[in-house]
Design brief:
Length: 648
């Protein structure tokens, strides 16, 4: 105890004596509620209110009293609406019964007084009923009716609530209700704090209505099967007002194990007194022990008056330990100013806790991505790329959500930066520079090494694109399908004109037997001129690709070679048959080169010319006819093969 302990012991002893209590007689359970009907009070004993009949103006409620204390069946003049079924519980002066309300076909709870209860107990019950009736809140059990039995004893009809008190849950880790709320010890702390938050919400409402509870403790909190949370026992609640201090001095009420100093010493009470009781309840949640304990009532009240700070175990969250100590501080001015402020601090802790749990889960997913990157050999992408992406994206989402809830959460911020870096590494290993750059843009300080790799990959990509474009242009340039239609049309036209020239020459010149070398040269020049005109007219379409230019070049070589062959034969003893045989051989050689380097289907034309050469060898007298026919046919066949190439 501190230096003021002896003085407080004396003050507590005088207070108990003044209230008519002997300290040695008060070895009562320190967790039990002290009420005006169990502890002598000067106010109620000496007040004229005690001699009045507080139930005189209340309506009579008909009750089928199956238990003898509630009425006489002989006095009934009609069927009672309430039928007592059993007793749910009882205290020093009152009982709570389970009753059936016939009119609405529902079960209700009926609270009444025992036969030996003093008059002031009736006043206390009426006060409790009216306070509860004024507090229409989900955390307060609804009051259905207030009246008197046939004997004039007060009856309080309330909603029947099935559940378990919070104190039982704190004492029993194996209670079945835990299975519906949380399976883990860490989750149970959250569940307990959520119950306390609901109690705070109920108190916020009561304080706003000017009502002080004065007996908040786990045993006075009921939790329903479906999560309902009720703050019970408003029997010593009081209306906040100017008389609060006087009433507090003349009455010792509350539960000693949780009492605020002002309650123990008879000082003025206000909303911060209930905040103290919330802090004492939080203490019990954290430690499973009373805030004040001792061998006698006097010892407990001295501890309540001192309210020395508690040194909590290291396993207890620091924020909650600090809140419990501040809420149970001796000076009300240093406590959280309201139940709302107390609740907000718990909510803030749960937010931090939730953020930490989310951050831990995200960190676990990030570690999966890190392992996948580390296990991949030589900077290659992970073997299971989908799993790596999934882990990275889940980690990123977790960190982002954590920061959305708490923007100041430093671990989540660091984790998100690491995650973005790891995802950027994953993209870089696949050569996705733009995706990696987008991820690095989200970082305040992107790693220089990763930025350098992005630049290197982009440079490599530019080089690759240029090479690809070059190869694409080359492929286009060598593609026989490009400009196939105008090329085929030009060849068809050229073949037709060549055939016409040859036919005209033979008709005008007297037939193939009259052909001379000079006539062959003239035909060759005519064909060269016509070819030049045709190619000039279609140059825009034909000369645009390397393939077509090569084809034109081969045609020019064939025409020029033939002309040189014929001119060279002048002045020699070579016959026309021999000259056209050499022309055909030249054309076959040119087409063979084209078939090897440009288009393999041109071998069909080479085969045609080979047949022509054989025919010329065995029938030289008709060589000029074979030559003309095969030349024109070859031109048309080449045109078809090139057109067919385009269609394919």
């Amino acid at each position: 105890m501190g230096p003021d302990a002896p003085d407080l012991e004396e003050r507590v002893s005088r207070r108990l004596t003044t209230l008519g209590l002997a300290v040695t007689e008060m070895n009562v359970a320190i967790g039990a509620t002290l009420r005006p009907d169990t502890v002598a009070t000067l106010t109620l004993k000496n007040s004229p209110e005690a001699s009045r009949q507080p139930t005189a103006e209340l309506p009579t409620i008909s009750v089928d009293a199956r238990e003898p204390a509630l009425g006489s069946a002989a006095d009934r003049t009609h069927t009672p609406d309430l039928s007592i079924l059993s007793t749910l519980g009882e205290g020093g002066m009152g009982r709570v019964h389970l009753a059936r309300q016939r009119s609405l076909e529902r079960d209700v709870a009926v609270k009444t007084l025992k036969e030996a209860a003093p008059a002031h107990a009736a006043a206390a019950l009426l006060s409790e009923a009216r306070l509860m009736g004024s507090l229409e809140h989900p955390g307060v059990i609804p009051v259905h009716a207030l009246g008197v039995s046939a004997e004039g004893r007060p009856l309080l009809v309330m909603k029947r609530v099935d559940g378990v008190d919070f104190g039982q849950l704190l004492d029993d880790d194996a209670h079945p209700l835990w299975s519906t709320r949380s399976e883990t010890s860490s989750g149970r702390l959250v569940a307990k704090l959520e119950v306390l938050i609901r109690v705070c919400e109920t108190l916020e409402f009561a304080h706003r209505r000017g009502v002080l509870h004065r007996d908040i403790k786990p045993e006075n909190v009921m939790i329903g099967e479906f999560g309902e949370v009720y703050l019970l026992d408003w029997g010593i609640a009081m209306a906040l007002g100017d008389s609060a201090a006087e009433t507090s001095r003349n009455v010792l009420v509350g539960t000693p194990a949780y009492m605020a100093p002002e309650m123990a010493l008879g000082g003025p009470v206000d909303a911060r007194t209930d905040v103290y009781l919330l802090g004492a309840t939080l203490h019990q949640i954290l430690t499973l022990s009373y805030r004040h304990d001792g061998r006698s009532l006097a010892e407990v009240l001295v501890k309540a008056a001192l309210s020395e700070p508690v040194s909590y175990a290291a396993s207890i969250p620091e924020a909650l330990a600090d809140l419990a100590n501040r809420a149970t501080a001796p000076d009300p001015a240093t406590r959280p100013p309201s139940a709302l402020a107390f609740r907000q601090e718990i909510t803030a802790y749960l937010g931090v806790r939730s953020a930490a749990a989310l951050c831990d889960a995200a960190e676990a997913r990030l570690s999966v991505l890190r392992r996948a990157l580390a296990d991949a050999p030589d900077g290659a992408p992970p073997a299971d790329l989908a799993a790596a992406y999934r882990a990275g994206n889940e980690a990123r989402f977790g960190f982002t959500q954590c920061l959305a809830d708490r923007s100041d959460h430093a671990p989540a911020r660091a984790g998100l930066d690491d995650c973005l870096g790891a995802l950027a590494e994953l993209e870089l290993r696949q050569g996705h520079a733009d995706a990696a750059a987008a991820l690095l843009d989200e970082l305040a300080e992107p790693p220089p090494a990763l930025l350098a790799r992005v630049s290197a990959i982009r440079d490599d990509a530019k080089t690759a694109r240029r090479e690809t474009e070059r190869l694409r242009a080359l492929a286009h340039d060598l593609d026989p399908g490009v400009a196939a239609r105008p090329r085929s049309a030009a060849l068809v036209l050229l073949g037709a004109l060549v055939g016409m020239i040859a036919l005209f020459t033979m008709v005008v010149g007297g037939g193939p037997k009259t052909f001379s070398l000079e006539r062959l040269i003239e035909v060759n020049l005519a064909i060269a001129f016509v070819a030049l005109i045709v190619l000039w007219g279609s140059r825009r379409f034909i000369l645009g690709t390397s393939f077509n230019r090569r084809m034109v070049g081969l045609l020019a070589v064939a025409i020029a070679g033939s002309l040189l062959n014929r001119v060279g034969a002048l002045g020699t003893e070579m016959t026309v048959a021999e000259v056209v045989f050499r022309d055909t051989l030249l054309f076959a050689a040119v087409l063979s080169a084209a078939a090897i380097t440009m288009l393999s289907s041109l071998w069909f034309c080479v085969g045609l010319l080979a047949v022509t050469l054989a025919a010329m060898h065995f029938d030289p007298g008709h060589a000029i006819l074979y030559f003309g026919a095969s030349s024109v046919t070859a031109v048309f066949l080449i045109s078809y093969l090139l057109w067919r190439r385009r269609a394919a």
